[in-house]
From TrEMBL:
Name the record gives this protein: Glutamine synthetase
Known function: Catalyzes the ATP-dependent biosynthesis of glutamine from glutamate and ammonia.
GO CC entries: cytoplasm
Main location (coarse class): cytoplasm
GO biological process, one term: glutamine biosynthetic process
Amino acid sequence: MANVPVAKLEYIWLDGYKPTQSLRSKTKIEKNFSGKLEDCDMWSFDGSSTQQAPGGSSDCLLKPVFICPDPTRLGAGFLVMCEVLNADGTPHESNGRATIDDEDNDFWFGFEQEYFLWNPETNKPLGFPATGYPAPQGQYYCSVGAANAFGRDMVEEHLEVCLQAGLNIEGINAEVAAGQWEFQGFAKGAKQAGDEMWIGRYLLEKIGEKYGVSINWHCKPLGDTDWNGSGMHANFSNTLLRTSGRKEDYDAVCQAFAPFVKEHIAVYGADNHLRLTGKHETQSIDKFSYGVSDRGASIRIPIAAVQKGWKGWLEDRRPNSAADPYKVAARIIKTVKTAVIPA
């Protein structure tokens, strides 16, 4: 592409808040910009304002790692996903992307991002009355109609903007609870899958500003009720799973997860004990199981993989909606690499 005379680059990063990080961003004006990632300069920010540095030594660095067009801005706009580095150039402790061991992009990830559209005036999901509850869940999943689907205009706009940005969004649907939706992303490479999911989240938050609607990423925002929680199911594969052709290989990969339940739960999102109860299509947080087409298991073996002769992928159903896809991918990759594949 020809160089852009004046470009607006939105540098996006994750802050240091615990247990759940938030998105931050600021705009950089570049003249005669090529639109290429390699021409995005390193930048810095005040880490003392994001819980990433003390005030006396507050500079943190922004390393651009992914770029795409920004359809939400007039003129030439770009979204630039960044890793946070310490002032000496080493990865900051909040930098989950730097922990991913997938330099050859052998691991492919597809994340199913659930969320609630939230009315800040009532502090309830869209579709909920100011007092009490709407009709019980059941009628809202993949629904249509003003009595069932709430916030569709905003959801459709988000889908369109993601596609215009060049993100590999694979679909959207209304979810089980009123005001709950999902979008799905996929990439060949764990780092890019995380990059695109965070950009997708950023665009959803930004579009919500226009509609006066917040995004509630919490995994169980309606508390101890019969309403579903929100997850970010992680579909993953590597060359072995995509080409295996043997049930024994799938069993070996799934069994490799059993010794690392605590390690996975540690990065699968805060308050997951509220969601992983063994109800509402989940396994209990302290147990591990896997099975073909089992949505009550920790890991589901899709029936499609079986029908294709044990060639496909697996779905870890435990990550919740607020989990960091970088950290989820990093932990899954680490565990899969421990699998002992039978001869």
